[in-house]
Amino acid sequence: MFIVIFIISLSLFLLSCAKKNKAQEGNSKKEDGKNYIIFVNADSPDENKMYSIEVESKDKKSIYQKNVLNAAGIDGKIAVLSEEKGKTGLYTINADGSGKVAVLKDFPIKNSYVSWSPDKKKITFAARKTGDKSDEIYYVETDENKGPVKVTDDGLTDADPKFSNSGETIAYDKKSGGNYDIFLYEISPLRNVNLSKNAANDISPVLKTDGTRMLFLSDEAEAGKYNLYSMNMDGSGRYPLTSGLNIDRHSVDVSPDGSMAAFVSVDDRKNKSLHVIDMSKKTVMVSNGSYISAWSDDSKKLYFASSDDKEMKRKIIEYDIQEGVMKDIVKVQYKPGEEAEGIKFIYFTDKLK
Questions:
Q1: Taking a C-beta distance cutoff of 8 angstroms, is the pair 303, 293 a contact?
Q2: Which residue among 13, 133, 139, 270 is buried most deeply as judged by most CB within 10 Å?
Q3: What is the CATH number of domain 113-249?
Q4: What pTM value is reported for the model?
């Protein structure tokens, strides 16, 4: 009887230790409750450097000194499309700049948005290799030491790939028949499906985190001017969320809870403004002169970049959605002639590794 009790007690003790270690392992990824903004500042087209800044203390650190062409963040990991020694490569780093891994070296990835799969095992992008007749969609597994997998191969222009929440499909836009449509690639059974089939230009798909619907831009109402639309993942249930705007192609960012989306509109004078819309179609203009944004993990705050040409400073500003209050997080001085470059990337995280 004593032996049985001892064995049960020992099992419970070991199970408790395992749970405690797992919890400690999860907590160790967080930096004592601190929040960080990872951003890329561009002084010129070939001087794009990556930094981190702690939101409360404003402690700023350089984390990547090579020329960054583009980046994407997920759960404390950054995929970096950068130029090193004149060659384009895809790398991953931790949010503190450590743990650099070369995923693809000397690969002709287009200077466009890269996208993680939710499990952080794959990255998708557009590229044009030798032999490709146009920009094609690829993805690569980050931890398998395998070459990239070609998603499209039809000689048509493909762009803006985004992984779905399941990681089993990739949404992208394709120029086919004189206009762009939204396509969906299914990794298994290896097929591409035209979702939008619309005479207008449908571009820049962004998927909601729950995987139920897709947001995208379309010039259906007025040729050449893009508004925000929504549709189901099978292409049905299409409807507009905005009207009378011209939304910047790469600016739509859905909040983590899926209830809102931020985007940047461009007026006829090329002035940009940041907006937030909830899914009941109520749109609020947040700030003039803003051009890129990122959500906090709890969807309560929005961080965005803006420029002050009078002070010759770029800013990253925190906007409290509920309170409507703004505060500066970082200011970066720039020189005359550098106004057009700006902040190229913003990512919020509470994890550095």
A1: yes
A2: 139
A3: 2.120.10.30
A4: 0.86
